[in-house]
Amino acid sequence: MDGHAEGGLKNVSSVCSISEMDDYNLSRLLDRPRLNIERQRSFDERSLSELSIGFTRAHLDNLESTYSPGRRSGFDTPASSTRNSFEPHPMVAEAWDALRRSLVYFRGQPLGTLAAVDHAAEEVLNYDQIFVRDFVPSALAFLMNGEHDIVKNFLVKTLQIQGWEKKIDRFKLGEGVMPASFKVQHDATRKSDTIVADFGESAIGRVAPVDSGFWWIILLRAYTKSTGDLSLAETPECQKGMRLILTLCLAEGFDTFPTLLCADGCSMVDRRMGIYGYPIEIQALFFMALRCALAMLKHDEEGKECIEKIVKRLHALSYHMRSYFWLDFQQLNDIYRYKTEEYSHTAVNKFNVIPDSIPDWVFDFMPTRGGYFIGNVSPARMDFRWFALGNCVAILASLATLEQSAAIMDLIEARWEELVGEMPLKITYPALEGHEWRIVTGCDPKNTRWSYHNGGSWPVLLWLLTAACIKTGRPQIARRAIDLAESRLLKDSWPEYYDGKLGRFVGKQSRKYQTWSIAGYLVAKMMLEDPSHLGMISLEEDKQMNPVLKRSSSWNC
Ligand code: GLC
After folding, report:
1. Atom of ligand 1 lying closest to residue 134 CA
2. Closest residue by CA, ligand 1 atom 3
3. Which residues are 445's β-sheet partners?
4. What is the pLDDT of residues 248-276, one digit of tens each?
5. How many other CB atoms are there within 10 angstroms of residue 39's CB atom?
6. Ligand 1 in contact with 281 (CB < 6 A)?
7. CA spacing 20 to 30 A to 259: which of 58, 101, 105, 357?
8. How far is CA 241 from the centre of its chain?
């Protein structure tokens, strides 16, 4: 627990905090040792080449003429409203106001954003907390707007929280575990702020968040990239934080797969939804976090050992994912014709998947052109469901090859009604119904078909879709999705999720003024206006990772 406060809660005052930050950054820049400046330059060079990946010159020209990328934003106004050559959408200003209303201060400094600021909601549950995963789009919006201090404060504070001893009942969690969420408690009489964190011991289902640590590493890189300030990532604390997170995942044991074995509910889908095993959402984030850490870890004694393990794991992980999680028309046809009970190294059907277990819907869903990473692969089990976050992150991290990335975008275009419908974007497709819903979710009334995690539509995913669209050179798809969001989000007071096959209804138990719906929209808008922001959250293909044998004809057509 933290001790006494230096000041009370501060009211939202963007102008003041931004100008303070400006001074602060300037003095730090002047102080920066020469070595850092040199290294920063190489980081920036990488950033440019990373940005160009997936973008043909024509695409860039096209975007440049419309959105004039590259101009820096003003500090005291949201970037979107200063940079446009056309009138900004009125929603942008509303979104910034709503985002600022969600700010949380710790001892006078901005620290993060609340999950939701819904005064009309009957139960607060834990929506009055700062969630690590929910803060990511907020952080990106602030970074894109030149407001770096809140992101730095968040990164430093969560790192301190990571150092706390974590116990569930009498069982101690690994040192590296990052909290799912935390809360600033303000004592008005004592004038003190303290922090209470949840590592899963209060969460429904008592599951520790596997994604939090990965998002932390990804955000540290985004911060470094956006500010050019390597000094934070280079601190012994950050270096140790990264190593601790990854040590949890890189230990050798009984695993025969390079993927990470997880409990149900350990990610954004934080309730029982049949994602236990090797969920794509976690594997894609794991891959991205490994690559981000690789770029930031120092080659000192402790770092070196970790780096070696990361390199080996990345190799194996990309091979495994690209080979066994990838599904396109050709691959589906191959699985449909699989022989079973094959023994020894010559087996084609390595995991003994029984073709009868392929659900009917997937035969109709799979277009001739297109493909995606399926939800899960483990012995005799392939979860064919589509998960949006995992697939978009796979594109951003270059876990997907260039061909696979293009195929994912082809699928989204071909199955627009199913995956986007009237509100971007389905968290997963299709929904579990009837008997399957009963068995897999344990009769969860919050996750009924086409609601919440079970096929609900989550506006927050818009920023991931937009980033993936820009990276694959298809900004027009993002534009289409943003138009859909703009037709309803503000009117409906920024819901957490929508229900229904087409996402037409505001979700049954959806919060209003859900912060990541607001921030996700802003990030999508800013990225489309200035695609150079993509570099913060995207990694170029690493040629060292051997591409797997191409088995699919759809990759080439
Ligand atoms: C819900 C979501 C989770 C999110 C949290 C706070 O529990 O499932 O992903 O982090 O709300 O918004």
Report:
1. 10
2. 268
3. none
4. 999 999 999 999 999 999 999 999 999 99
5. 14
6. no
7. 357
8. 19
